[in-house]
Amino acid sequence: xxxxxxxxxxxxxxxxxxxxxxxxxxxxxxxxxxxxxxxxxxxxxxxxxxxxxxxxxxxxxxxxxxxxxxxxxxxxxxxxxxxxxxxxxxxxxxxxxxxxxxxxxxxxxxxxxxxxxxxxxxxxxxxxxxxxxxxxxxxxxxxxxxxxxxxxxxxxxxxxxxxxxxxxxxxxxxxxxxxxxxxxxxxxxxxxxxxxxxxxxxxxxxxxxxxxxxxxxxxxxxxxxxxxxxxxxxxxxxxxxxxxxxxxxxxxxxxxxxxxxxxxxxxxxxxxxxxxxxxxxxxxxxxxxxxxxxxxxxxxxxxxxxxxxxxxxxxxxxxxxxxxxxxxxxxxxxxxxxxxxx
Amino acid sequence: xxxxxxxxxxxxxxxxxxxxxxxxxxxxxxxxxxxxxxxxxxxxxxxxxxxxxxxxxxxxxxxxxxxxxxxxxxxxxxxxxxxxxxxxxxxxxxxxxxxxxxxxxxxxxxxxxxxxxxxxxxxxxxxxxxxxxxxxxxxxxxxxxxxxxxxxxxxxxxxxxxxxxxxxxxxxxxxxxxxxxxxxxxxxxxxxxxxxxxxxxxxxxxxxxxxxxxxxxxxxxxxxxxxxxxxxxxxxxxxxxxxxxxxxxxxxxxxxxxxxxxxxxxxxxxxxxxxxxxxxxxxxxxxxxxxxxx
Amino acid sequence: xxxxxxxxxxxxxxxxxxxxxxxxxxxxxxxxxxxxxxxxxxxxxxxxxxxxxxxxxxxxxxxxxxxxxxxxxxxxxxxxxxxxxxxxxxxxxxxxxxxxxxxxxxxxxxxxxxxxxxxxxxxxxxxxxxxxxxxxxxxxxxxxxxxxxxxxxxxxxxxxxxxxxxxxxxxxxxxxxxxxxxxxxxxxxxxxxxxxxxxxxxxxxxxxxxxxxxxxxxxxxxxxxxxxxxxxxxxxxxxxx
Lengths: 342, 294, 241
What we know:
heterotrimer, B: 294 residues, mainly alpha, C: 241 residues, alpha/beta, Rossmann fold, 2 domains, 4-stranded antiparallel beta sheet, 9 helices
């Protein structure tokens, strides 16, 4: 039989296959522990992809993004605990709030040079965390300071964004991840993507070509913060408990950034690849090695980051991309019976 | 009023120690134009080194300087040589050298977690011959180790100033910081200078480690607090300025000490961050720094 | 008709006067040259026109509309394009990507932007290199890329800052041909250049400045023989009196 398929078609089919496999996983994997691991993996992949809109496309290094995760979680939870507002709606309120805060922070900081910008985002991130830890109540809203917020168990309730099984959470975060990757892809192909790419690399040249670099960076920031906050709400509803030191910490901010950097910032697949490689490493070394060597997984993480920055500064995406293309070529040849049709 | 006076004296002493730590960071920046995000972690390494040394030999903390300072000098020297140099070279022409920032952040991460892994999260404390001692200046009680810290800071700053101005190596370092290419044309080995400058900056962090040991807790993430303080001080005082670092440190120490008489220490933390952000927005070159064109 | 009218523009930086009361008018379809020794304020004048700097005083009029102090991106939107003396390609992106950033100034459609970009690249003989990363180009190609990017914004007025610096004689000739072609197509070009024979051979009118001040204006021949100009470039010894 002589099937002739173009390279692009085969690529789409591969993507479809991967999506089908991923969506079908819960049918075969029932263990809540493993599902939880996958959920957290997609959670981080989502966070780094959202981070990438600013840290990759806009060319700056934000190191305080966990603050927006926190804003999302706190906003939706406080509205739910106080008004009974469905976390689904609270999620979007949190997102908008985060976007506004992001723009307020971005306006003065985007004018700064690299290291100063990084420092400023660290200061903001830590500042917001410190502020939340010091506040017990804002008006009628209970924040609980360092102790964090607890969401009462309501059992299976879609409106209250709570499920007894891990499976719905799995699908929700998966769909969120697919959407965020799709958004990144679309942006990269549209004018805004080009403007961000050029503006991040050579702002003066971009400006001379008609790009209001500052405006586009702020748009990217608003979008990134909005999306990041949505994940905050998801986390709150998944764990039903969160506290400042855990969710808004520098560690989380760093991990988000590092995963994107190791995977390849500025690319579409880079952050996801980073999460796919690093999170399992993290989880398994934590589960199996923490007994006698606590923190080893983080040591390994730091080491990988340093090595990648020295030898593959553009991230693992580059060499892996070559492998992928080789694989794709081989597949195309095999399917088309030895001929390669472009 | 007395409380404020007491807090002021305390703040000046502790602040000078912060300033000393910031001094190390500012030297590295002034010469290599790199902000070493791992500076706090290197300070932590110095503290642990001093801790174990004193624990096993019982020597006076300031004698520990003899071992810790050279140890940290070489640590810094090789960190610059092995880790930062290759990244730095690759990014020479890039407009925003982000990778250098990332790699030093990676070292921060690595060192802190390595310490956690090897030494555990335990908060350690060591009693030395000057721990807990104090003397009185009128109605004010001055903590002896903190006061010595103040003295050591001044001595180190003056020595550093002399070194950079009068010695051959110091002049070479200053030359390399003004114009790397011109300096290397004059026979100054650029990267060797950078290694030495990094070594000096890290050695200063080692001094701080020894100074802190008599009264400060030792734990894996102790560096983070100092790291962030150092950034704030260095931006406040002006990157590359020796007196800026010391004065900036004292200012921060004063704010911390005086304000915490009136509010929870976590709020003073927040105030310091707020001041930091204000400076970044209004006058990023700091009080004494040159306008940075980088 | 006068396309660009610079009226008494002055730019001071603290105590230094970089541009001192410069006046000039450029007609539509002209190639207008700007010469002067290093540091005479040529690039600063460009920056004052394109919004990178705000003039300390004076007015810049484009097509009878005042554009003094507008932002660079708004000026680009008004069909004024410029290149930089030190080229600034988006190094990690392909040649095509670079030019598309320019062509997106006139359309939001990626397909149209791509078409325009390829058209411009073909005109400048760079189309075969469209997928190469900009940082891997030779200096001559980078200069052409810089020009291509600017052209993709479909300008009416093109400001070129030493676009021929660093090129070999044959490459200079190629560039001159391209510029002549553009002028024949109706473009107005304002050129800063150091390579005398290049700028003199292509300009319709030339303005010479030194220390930010006007010293001579006229046809290339008139300016080349001007006493003040010769003094400025070669010093007092070379003036033929």
